[in-house]
Structure to design on (359 residues):
């Protein structure tokens, strides 16, 4: 965008995404934005839960929280944005609302994708890239910043890693200790839910069979994680298990969950937010894929692996399977156990999680 004078941009607002996994996938773009505008003050406008991901980030200066939907939320956001006098708005979501907030706030430079009829609300609208369905989602967000900064500064090795503060790790160790987790045993987390799609869920009884084998054959502590909305599926797993897992579903906020995930030896999960958090923290992560596209949403980290037995109908991207859920039922507990065992065996003393408990 040759007409943008970078030296005149002192305050930047970035409208963050609305889902946890998407938020993690914006990290390379946020880092690129910091490099492009090293002296600017960068505000991340996002949902309250995102503070748990970005509170310790060195690529944003502050976080502005907005909640709710509809007219009241728009008015509240506009008032908050106007107080800051932003020079540039970078819009990661495709929503009309995010562009409307930026326009009503009179941010002079507003960029994002020209979707949902919002082109006239943007001063620098971008066309959807042709490669949208064939490249990882991180490039979708990164492309916005690269177009803003100029093609000569394209990122060749995106950095999507996150860090957890020492205080968050200490709190997580204390929480795990209070639930009987031993530093002498492996710690394996299972995430059997998914908030926005039932089709993405590997069957609960298979998670139960997997958890039982991990406890008995690997001498592991197995912890179930998830949000309050995933309590039902967690209950299905625990009722089907013969051995006792540790249940942290609904008992942690996102900051605490990130702390716990930073200490696991392995996470086995559906294609959902914790998959991206754990892999971004460098922890071994095995994601069971069914209806979604791993080309675009697999964890963008060397520590993340996937299991997939795709039928002809996958990826369908449907939230409920209209037939027999064959993309998921083709994957057996034995398949996942064997792959999990290989991933655990590949760990060295340097890559094992540090879970020295607090005295």
């Amino acid at each position: 965008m040759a007409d943008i004078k970078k030296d005149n941009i002192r305050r930047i607002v970035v409208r963050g995404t609305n889902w946890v996994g998407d938020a993690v996938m914006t990290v390379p773009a946020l880092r690129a934005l910091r490099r492009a505008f090293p002296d600017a003050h960068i505000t991340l406008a996002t949902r309250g839960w995102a503070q748990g991901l970005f509170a310790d980030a060195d690529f944003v200066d502050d976080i502005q929280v907005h909640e709710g939907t509809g007219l009241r939320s728009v008015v509240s956001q506009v008032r908050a944005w106007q107080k800051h006098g932003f020079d540039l708005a970078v819009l990661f979501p495709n929503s009309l609302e995010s562009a409307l907030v930026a326009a009503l706030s009179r941010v002079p430079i507003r960029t994002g994708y020209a979707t949902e009829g919002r082109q006239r609300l943007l001063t620098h609208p971008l066309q959807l890239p042709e490669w949208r369905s064939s490249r990882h989602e991180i490039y979708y967000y990164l492309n916005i910043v690269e177009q803003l900064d100029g093609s000569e500064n394209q990122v060749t090795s995106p950095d999507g890693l996150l860090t957890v503060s020492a205080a968050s790790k200490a709190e997580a160790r204390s929480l795990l200790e209070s639930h009987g987790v031993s530093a002498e045993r492996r710690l394996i987390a299972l995430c059997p839910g998914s908030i926005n799609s039932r089709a993405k869920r590997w069957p609960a009884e298979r998670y139960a069979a997997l958890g039982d084998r991990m406890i008995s054959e690997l001498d592991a502590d197995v912890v179930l994680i998830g949000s309050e909305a995933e309590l039902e599926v967690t209950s299905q797993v625990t009722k089907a298990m013969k051995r006792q897992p540790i249940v942290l579903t609904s008992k942690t906020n996102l900051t605490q969950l990130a702390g716990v995930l930073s200490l696991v030896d392995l996470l086995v999960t559906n294609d959902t937010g914790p998959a991206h958090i754990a892999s971004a923290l460098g922890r071994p992560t095995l994601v069971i894929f069914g209806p979604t596209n791993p080309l675009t949403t697999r964890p963008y980290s060397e520590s993340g692996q996937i299991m997939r037995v795709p039928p002809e109908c996958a990826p369908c991207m449907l939230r409920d399977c209209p037939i027999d859920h064959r993309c998921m039922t083709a994957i057996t507990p034995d398949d996942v156990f064997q792959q999990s065992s290989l991933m655990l065996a590949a760990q060295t003393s340097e890559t094992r999680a540090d879970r020295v408990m607090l005295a």
In short: The chain has a mean pLDDT of 92. The first helix runs from residue 20 to 25. The chain is about 35% helix and 15% strand.
